[in-house]
Amino acid sequence: MVETSYYLVLAAIIFTVGATGVLLRRNALIIFMCIEMMLNSVNLTLIALARQWGNLEGQIFVFMIMAVAAAEVAVGLAILIANVRHRQSINIDEINLLKW
Amino acid sequence: MSWSLIFFLLVGAVSLAAALGVVTSRQPVHSALFLLTNFATLAVLYITLDAQFLAAAQVIVYAGGIVILILFVIMLIGGDTNDFSAAQRAWSRTVGIALGIILLLVISYSALSRMMGPSEDSAALLQGGTPEAVGIELFTKYILPFELVALLLLVALIGALVLGRQQEGASEGIPSVKANE
C-alpha cells in the first residue's frame, strides 16, 4: 500500500501548479480551469485522509465539493459569457470596473 | 519498490504533467484537454484509495460535465488570446513562480509528517468506498446536507439561466473575442 503522505505531496504539487496558473495567466477561462484543478487536488487530499483514518466522512465531503464545483462552473461560465457580451474580452486585466 | 508504488508514481507523473499542460498551453482547447487528462488520472488514484463511487462520480461529473461545459464555452467565445504577454508587468511571471514555490514548500512541510498507509481495520471500515457504503452514509447521517446540495444546484441552474439570458433588444449572439487584445 502506498503511503498516505505520497498522495498528500502529489495533491500539494497539483494545488501549487493551479495556484501559480491563477497568478500567471490572464485568460479568465484558463484561470477557471486552474481553480477546478485546485479543487480536485483538495479532493484527493480528503480521499487519501479518509483512507488513512478509515472514515467515510471524507468521501461524503468530496461528494459535496463536487456538487458545489458543478454549481460554481455553471454560474462562473455564465458570468464569463455575460462579460464577453458586454466587453468583448476575457482578459481579466480588462475586467476592472470594481478597481479603484 | 512494490508494484502499487510504481503504479502510483506513473499515474501521478501523468497527472502532474497534465496539470502543467493546463497552465502552459497557449490554446484554451489544449488546456481543457489537459484538464480532462488530469481528472481521469485522479479518478484512477481514487480507485487505489478505496473510493470506487467517487471515482465514477469524478468521471461523470468532472470529465463528462464540467470539461464539456468549458469546451462549449471555448467554442462559443473562441478565446484563443495569447495572454502570455502581460507586457505591462514583466515581473509578474517571476513573482508568480516565486510565490508558487513558497506555497509548495509550506504545504509540503506541513504534509510531510510521514503518514504510513492505513491499518487493516481502518481499511475494512471503508468497504472499498462502494456506492452502497457511501449511499448508506449519505442517506442516513448526511441527508440534510444532501438535500441542501439539491437546492444549491437548483439555485445555480436558475442563476446561470438569468445571467446567460439574451438581453431584450440586444442584437446578434455572442461576439467572439479578438486575438491579442
From TrEMBL, chain A:
List residues traversing the bilayer: 6-24, 29-48, 60-82
Membrane topology note: Multi-pass membrane protein
Main localization (coarse): membrane
Record keyword NAD present: yes
- UniProt-listed Enzyme Commission number(s): 7.1.1.-
Matches recorded under NCBIfam families:
PRK05715.1-2, PRK05715.1-3, PRK05715.1-5
Q: What is this protein called?
A: NADH-quinone oxidoreductase subunit K
Q: Which organism is it from?
A: Caldilineaceae bacterium SB0664_bin_27
High-level lineage: Bacteria, Bacillati, Chloroflexota, Caldilineae, Caldilineales
UniProtKB/TrEMBL annotation, chain B:
Q: What class of enzyme is it?
A: translocase
According to Swiss-Prot or TrEMBL, what is its membrane topology?
A: Multi-pass membrane protein
* Gene3D superfamilies in the cross-refs: NADH-ubiquinone/plastoquinone oxidoreductase chain 6, subunit NuoJ
Keywords assigned by UniProt? Cell membrane, Membrane, NAD, Quinone, Transmembrane, Transmembrane helix
Subcellular location(s) per record? Cell membrane
Reactions mediated catalytically = a quinone + NADH + 5 H(+)(in) = a quinol + NAD(+) + 4 H(+)(out)
State the GO CC annotations: plasma membrane
Pfam families reported for this sequence: Oxidored_q3
Membrane-spanning segments: 29-47, 59-78, 90-112, 142-163
Protein EC: 7.1.1.-
Q: Which GO terms describe its molecular function?
A: NADH dehydrogenase (ubiquinone) activity; quinone binding
Q: Which family does it belong to?
A: Belongs to the complex I subunit 6 family.
Outline what the protein does. Answer: NDH-1 shuttles electrons from NADH, via FMN and iron-sulfur (Fe-S) centers, to quinones in the respiratory chain. Couples the redox reaction to proton translocation (for every two electrons transferred, four hydrogen ions are translocated across the cytoplasmic membrane), and thus conserves the redox energy in a proton gradient.
**Protein name stated in the entry:** NADH-quinone oxidoreductase subunit J
